[in-house]
Amino acid sequence: MVNAGTNPFEQGEAIKSGLLFGVVTVAAKAAEVYIGEKGLYIAGAMAGLTDVDAISLSMANLATADAESLKVAAHTIVIAVLSNTLVKTGMAVFLAPLQCVVLSCGRRCVVDRGGAGARSHPLSQLAPLIDAFSQSQGG
Does 80 share its domain with 15? Predict the structure, then answer.
C-alpha cells in the first residue's frame, strides 16, 4: 500500500514536478540568452543539485528545436548528472552511519548480489575487511 504523499502520480506531486520543470526551463532559457553556453552549464549544475529530470527534459526540448545545440544540451545533461551524483554521494557519506555505508556499498552490493562474477570484481577484495569490521561491530 502506498502512503499518501509518496505516490508520484498524486496530483500534488505532479504539480510540483510540473512547476519544477517550468522553473528550470525558464532559468535555462534565460541563462542561454544572457550568458550563452556557459549559462546553460551553470543552470545544469544548479538544477542537478536537486533533480536531473527537469533539466534533461529542458535540454531535450532545446536539442530538438535547434540541431546545432545538441552538443551543448548533452554536455549540460552530463553536468547535471555529475552534480546530482556528487550531492547524493555526499549525502550518503555524511548522513549515513559508517557501518551502513560500508556494508551496503562493500560486501552486500559487490559480493552477495554480484552473482558468479562478483569475486572477480576489484571491490570484492574488500570482502574480508568488511566481514572483519562487521564481526567487530556485532553483526
Answer: yes
Cell output for 129: 575487511
Q: Are residues 33 and 48 in the same domain?
A: yes
d(CA 119, CA 61) in angstroms, rounded, equals 43
pTM of the model: 0.59
What H or E segment, with its residue span, contains residue 137? none
Whether 120 is covered by a domain: the verdict is: yes
**Dist. CA 8–CA 97, nearest whole Å:** 28
pLDDT tens-digit readout, 42-95: 989 988 888 888 889 888 988 888 878 899 999 999 999 999 999 888 887 777
Do 115 and 58 belong to one domain?
no
